[in-house]
Specification:
The chain is an alpha+beta fold and 199 residues long. It has one domain: Cyclic Phosphodiesterase, Chain: A. It is built from three helices and nine strands, in the order βαββαββαββββ. It has helices at residues 29-46, 68-78, 111-130; strands at residues 18-27, 49-50, 58-67, 89-96, 101-105, 144-148, 160-166, 169-178, 185-192. It has a five-stranded antiparallel beta sheet, covered by helices on one side. It is globular.
């Protein structure tokens, strides 16, 4: 079980510093290779910026700007959180028009997986609220971003069936986005450590 990102030691940072963070579910190597192929095909249609292969993930909770001291507490608490066994296939490509994102995810026929993911999302947020986080009003749509800054024609259907690929999870982590000269770099600050995640 692994998340292929550089690690970040939260204890070495100023407790009052604010960082953008999220909790993400990382796919295994085979799933990431499939996602990279889909990103390449989508890029030929939409342009934009392809996600780095090691950055492919399904976001379970956005934490936005969070104080390092709060992230330190969360990192300690979340290590023993349960990870449900969810069987999910990536079967469609679609877009989020306003943020100009092209993504892959499960289609509506996978009601059992979508229900399980929604429940997991709610359970995570219940824990976060208990730790002092404030939940922002966001619709949870399970997806893996393929492209950002895509050229998306407004008001047109973009849903497209993809060859089925099982999403096999290989780790759930607390991820901090560290600004860089050209793009942000994800850093792993903590992991949930069950025996196995995913399908």
């Amino acid at each position: 079980m692994t998340i292929p990102l550089p690690t970040l030691d939260l204890q070495s940072l100023d407790a009052d510093h604010v960082l953008r963070a999220f909790i993400g579910w990382w796919p295994d190597v085979q799933t990431r290779a499939w996602l990279a192929e889909q990103a390449l095909q989508a890029h030929a249609i939409y342009g934009g910026r392809m996600m780095q292969p090691d950055h492919f993930h399904l976001t379970l909770a956005f934490l936005d700007g969070s104080r390092v001291s709060d992230l330190q507490t969360l990192a300690t608490q979340m290590a023993q959180w349960p990870v449900p066994q969810i069987k999910m296939d990536l079967t469609m490509r679609d877009v989020f028009e306003k943020p100009r994102v092209v993504w892959a995810g499960p289609d509506a026929s996978q009601s059992q997986a979508l229900t399980a993911l929604q429940q997991w999302h709610e359970e995570i947020w219940a824990k976060l609220i208990a730790l002092g986080w404030t939940r922002q009003p966001r619709l949870f749509r399970p997806h893996v971003s393929l492209l950002r800054h895509a050229q998306i024609a407004a008001g047109q259907p973009h849903g497209h069936a993809l060859p089925t690929q099982a999403f096999v999870g290989d780790g759930v982590g607390l991820i901090v986005s560290v600004p860089g000269e050209q793009r942000s770099q994800y850093h792993l600050a903590a992991m949930i450590k069950p025996e196995r995640t995913g399908a």
